[in-house]
Design a protein that fits this description.
The complex is a heterodimer. Chain A has 3 helices and 9 strands. By secondary structure, chain A is of the alpha+beta class. Chain A has a single domain, classed as Beta Barrel (OB fold (Dihydrolipoamide Acetyltransferase, E2P)), CATH 2.40.50.100. In chain A, the strands form 2 sheets. Chain A has a 6-stranded antiparallel sheet with strand order 1-2-3-9-8-5. In chain A, strand 6 and strand 7 form a beta hairpin. The two termini of chain A are 14 Å apart. Chain B is α/β, with parallel strands linked by helices. Chain B has 2 domains: 119 residues, Aspartate Aminotransferase, domain 1 (Alpha-Beta Complex); 261 residues, 3-Layer(aba) Sandwich (Aspartate Aminotransferase, domain 2), CATH 3.40.640. Chain B has 14 helices and 14 strands. In chain B, helix 12 packs across helix 14 and helix 13 crosses helix 14. Classes of the chains: A alpha+beta, B alpha/beta. Chains A and B meet through loops of A and loops of B.
């Protein structure tokens, strides 16, 4: 059973969002990393780049496939997880911790409210697997 | 007999649908005076023997083919061992296009893997791709790759890079949002100017130099690499004369980030400019930003060695919109020729060819420098090409040399640098004998040197 922490917000594209003040930390869920398999490369944006909600901000390459990753909220990239360049496997081993991808300064913090709660995301993934 | 896949009835139906009475009416817009009535004026058919002698007679009129040549500037005359043509003519290689179901073509993948390995060894880099169309398009791709790696959009390049390579780069970048800044070469040394390093700033994606450069001078790559890296920029090194890698310190060891080269010198004939082959190598950390395809070594379930297309997915199979470039192929056959050449010559063979080029060039340049009216304007260290400043306009000098002495003495630089009217670029390779070099000196002396003795400013 995939791990779905209570305190995070989730997208239907399997990204999670942790709100910290007016910033959002974004990564992919435990369910996503498990479906992808061993991650070998993570392509991230440059700090200062701006994205609208649901826009692709990078990609995750696993032994199985290359998948786009989308930001669930609009804003400017304040920080990227540079350690993923050398240790992309962190996405597998610690998707909600050391495997985080980007930190975005949100331009419309209200967008978070339309995301899924942990319980809703759990139902969503269950429906997807069935 | 022609095969026309529709019947007269079907043709009549199609004409009726567009309201015409005959196919001839389709050509009504072509004025009557421009239309051919009757048969083409072609000579009667010849027998095979007659045809052969007709072509031999035409070939004999090709004066350039019998002249002694000292032409270089991006295309070089080197000896090609017979085995190169023999191997690449094998039907398994000769007819095969770049594999679209690659893993079924293990032989092709193995030769590409060997090619990539040789390119890495020669350039001192960590990864090389399956090849590019040629050196110039390889350089343009290196520039685009620098932008992807650094996410910066300014390129600084020295005008001592081959002018035609710079033209190709300009074509690639002009609508790609990349600024190309050209920095004048140093007219004392013939090398990239000291201002090149000074032009690098925090917006610079890459510094582009060629070594040996267009004038034949070897560049100080280490200093440029340090200057580029200090600002977070990449050093892109282009090479037109790949034989130089047999003798010069590999660009990888000097700190280059991307090395591109024209591979024509490795067993590829001078056939009116192509097809040639581009070499493209970089550091492993940039492997995913490489254009084109990359073959890797792998092992199957039984532990047997095999080869796979490791990187290409971004190009043509999935995620096409994320492709690193539009090159989905490689110069398979020409890359194979280069591979066979390099494996035939071996490490020592390439060194020996390079040594011969260097020594014969030194001999030729020293002899020419002693001729009254002639000088070598650039002081930079040279490999197998050098610029000569003559007593009259270089284009006139070279055409007299060709017409009266059957020697192609070089390329007039005025074609690219209008100010350098008396300068021409001479290339000497292992295919030039001492007798040929002496004949060049003799010809320059008898045609020009004696007549201008003492008039040199």
């Amino acid at each position: 059973m995939a791990n779905v922490p209570e305190d995070l917000h989730y997208s239907k594209d399997h990204e999670w969002v942790r709100v910290e003040g007016d910033s959002a930390v974004i990564g992919i869920t435990d369910y996503a990393q498990d479906s992808l398999g061993d991650v070998v490369y993570v392509e991230l944006p440059k700090t200062g780049e701006k994205f609208s909600a649901n826009e692709s901000f990078g990609s995750v390459e696993s032994v199985k496939a290359v998948s786009e990753v989308f930001t669930p909220v609009s804003g400017e990239v304040g920080k990227i997880n540079e350690t993923l360049a050398d240790e992309p496997e962190k996405v597998n081993t610690d998707p909600y911790g050391d495997g985080w991808m980007i930190r975005v300064r949100m331009s419309s913090p209200g967008e978070v409210d339309s995301l899924l709660t942990a319980a809703e995301y759990e139902d969503f993934t269950k429906a997807e697997t069935e | 007999m022609r095969y026309i896949p529709n019947s007269p009835v079907e043709r009549a139906e199609m004409l009726a649908a567009i309201g015409l009475g005959s196919a001839e009416e389709l050509f009504d817009s072509i004025p009557e005076t421009l239309r051919l009535r009757g048969l083409l004026n072609t000579p009667a058919a010849l027998s095979e023997i007659e045809l052969l002698s007709r072509f031999e007679e035409m070939a004999a009129r090709n004066a350039g083919a019998r002249r002694t040549t000292f032409l270089g500037a991006g295309a070089y005359s080197h000896y090609i061992p017979t085995i190169v043509d023999h191997i690449i003519s094998r039907s398994e290689f000769f007819t095969a296009y770049t594999p679209y179901q690659p893993e079924i073509s293990q032989g092709t993948l193995q030769t590409i893997f060997e090619f990539q390995t040789l390119v890495c060894q020669l350039t001192g880099m960590e990864v090389a791709n399956a090849s590019m169309y040629d050196g110039s398009t390889g350089l343009a791709e290196a520039v685009l790759m620098s932008e992807r790696v650094t996410r910066r959009s300014k390129i600084v390049a020295s005008t001592s890079v081959h002018p035609e390579y710079l033209e190709v780069v300009k074509t690639y970048v002009q609508h790609a949002g990349i600024d190309l800044e050209l920095i004048e070469f140093d007219d004392e040394t013939g090398q990239a100017g000291a201002t090149l390093a000074a032009a690098i700033d925090d917006e610079t994606a890459a510094v582009v130099v060629q070594s040996p450069n267009f004038f034949g001078c070897v560049e100080d790559l280490t200093t440029l690499a340090d200057a580029a890296h200090a600002r977070g920029a990449l050093l892109v090194v282009a090479i037109t004369e790949a034989i130089s890698l047999g003798l010069l310190k590999p660009p990888g060891a000097c700190g280059a980030d991307i090395v591109v080269a024209e591979g024509q010198s490795f067993g590829v004939p001078l056939s009116f400019g192509g097809p040639y082959v581009g070499l493209f190598a970089t550091r492993e950390k940039y492997a995913r930003q490489i254009p084109g395809r990359l073959v890797g070594e792998a092992y199957d379930k039984q532990g047997r060695r095999g080869f796979v297309l490791t990187l290409a997915t971004r190009e043509q199979h999935i995620r096409r919109e994320k492709a690193t470039s539009n090159i989905c192929t490689n110069e398979g056959l020409i890359a194979l020729a280069a591979t066979v050449y390099l494996e035939t010559m071996g490490r020592r063979g390439i060194q020996e060819v390079a040594q011969q080029c260097l020594q014969k060039t030194a001999y030729a340049s020293q002899r020419i420098a002693q001729l009254p009216g002639f000088s070598l304007p650039f002081s930079g260290p040279r490999f197998n090409e050098f610029v000569v400043r003559g007593p009259i306009a270089a284009s006139d000098l070279l055409s007299r040399l060709a017409g009266e002495k059957e020697i192609e003495g070089g390329i007039a630089l005025s074609r690219f640098f209008p100010d350098l009217k008396s300068d021409f670029l001479v290339c000497v390779t292992e295919t030039n004998t001492r007798a040929q070099i002496d004949a060049l000196i003799e010809a320059l002396t008898s045609l020009f040197a004696n007549k201008t003795a003492g008039t040199q400013p």
